[in-house]
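Need residues for this backbone.
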């Protein structure tokens, strides 16, 4: 299925990168991974409970640290963590570049979740498109000839049109007011 939120999309992406096909078959094909994840969640929650209850006062004090001091510290720790994976300074530069790109997208009003879903599901969608084109001998008409695929395409176009109509009408109003 399609991941319902960004956290699940990250999990699906991580599993896909490691060659694990996400879905209900993970429990039977990779039981050690599945039960390891369940056990790690139990242990993690238990450790958080043990560590956080006595340290609540410290965490409250941490909230009082000014942002101008916290932000550079977070950046330094991120750079150290990224560098420690492969010991490559280029990895840090790429991360900074992608961070800047993500910041620009957020400032321009783009949502990050659809891009993450595109990254996770893009390979699978491309593979299925190629399979369909191989079966139909390269003809794109196969997507319109079958009633189910034609219906899904019509629904997709309608949803896209409904999503774009408010922005189009807003721009038209701006043109007419000028």
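Answer:
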């Amino acid at each position: 299925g399609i991941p319902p939120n960004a956290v699940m999309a990250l999990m699906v992406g991580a599993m896909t990168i490691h060659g694990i096909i996400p879905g209900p078959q993970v429990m039977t094909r990779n039981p050690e991974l599945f039960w390891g994840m369940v056990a790690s969640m139990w242990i993690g929650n238990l450790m958080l409970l043990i560590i956080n209850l006595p340290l609540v006062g410290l965490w409250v004090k941490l909230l009082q640290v000014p942002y101008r001091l916290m932000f550079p510290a977070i950046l330094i720790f991120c750079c150290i963590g990224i560098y420690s994976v492969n010991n490559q300074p280029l990895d840090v530069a790429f991360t900074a570049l992608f961070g800047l790109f993500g910041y620009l997208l957020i400032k321009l009003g783009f949502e990050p979740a659809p891009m993450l879903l595109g990254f996770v599901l893009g390979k699978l969608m491309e593979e299925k498109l190629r399979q369909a084109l191989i079966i139909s001998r390269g003809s794109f008409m196969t997507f319109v000839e079958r009633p189910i695929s034609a219906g899904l395409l019509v629904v997709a176009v309608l949803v896209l049109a409904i999503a774009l109509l408010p922005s189009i009408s807003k721009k038209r109003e701006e043109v007419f007011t000028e």
